[in-house]
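input
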Amino acid sequence: MRGQPFRVKACKHSKYKFLVRSKVTGKWMRRFFRNRADAETFVKLCETELLNKGVEGIEFPSWLRVMAQRENCRLKSYGKTISDAADSYIQHLEANARSIPLDAAVKELIANRRANGASGRYVYDLKLRLGRFCRDFAGRVVADITVVDVDTWLTRLNLAPVTRNTFRRDLSTLFSFALGRKYCVENPVAASRKAKEVSSDIEILTIEQLAILLQSAHQETLPYWALGAFAGLRRAELERLQWKQVDFESNLIEIKARQSKTATRRLVTIQPNLADWLAPYRSATGSVCPTNLRKRLDEDRARAGLDKNWPSN
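output
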């Protein structure tokens, strides 16, 4: 290298008497010392560093070198390098920069499901459960949610295993959707703990219990009980059923694909006993189920004396 990259000069500073100046990296560097010996020692160290490691060695401060060595040792036991760590964290930072608030992600998901033909009941339930999650994590962005956040929240719901897993399923739907839109780098629900469901035996009403229930049912809820008992319709199908789908002439009930759990259309035969129970409703229109259905069904069970002995499942 031509010339002397480091020079010691006397100065008139009130505290320091000598100055070392250099312009190795393209910028002037100045360091002050109390005496010439310290200044010349510093110059020798810098010249040795420059000779051994070049300009990069001069620009690389000792505190950063110590940090790099320490963190490299920590990562080595995992088979990773500082570059791996930087790549991972930068990916996280980029995801946070692209991410959006939870409530905004839920709105996008709901709009997407509606556009793709999801049923109104499904969309309502999805919005209800995810809305609860958004309220509890208000102000958070999608990429900021961790596995611990999900596990802790699900546990604090204090719900039955089946219901808890339903919440977990809807959360997984949200984060899978967000992952596809690059609002996060992983789905935290995938690694969360699923509640253990202990299945119980399916129980049924006895003939006597069903007879009492039908006799005790209100006029508006009687079709619900009769269709469930004699046509085998699921609760969700009954709640969506319209009287125009009950064809008394052909003795068939049409379950549309969007109303069915399996998303397939099917026809259910009206058996003679069901036809007798439904005869008074031949001219009925609109929805088969009345408003406030759950409350009315509870009242029917209470009148039949089955509210405390209602069969499981």
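quick obs: The chain has a mean pLDDT of 84.
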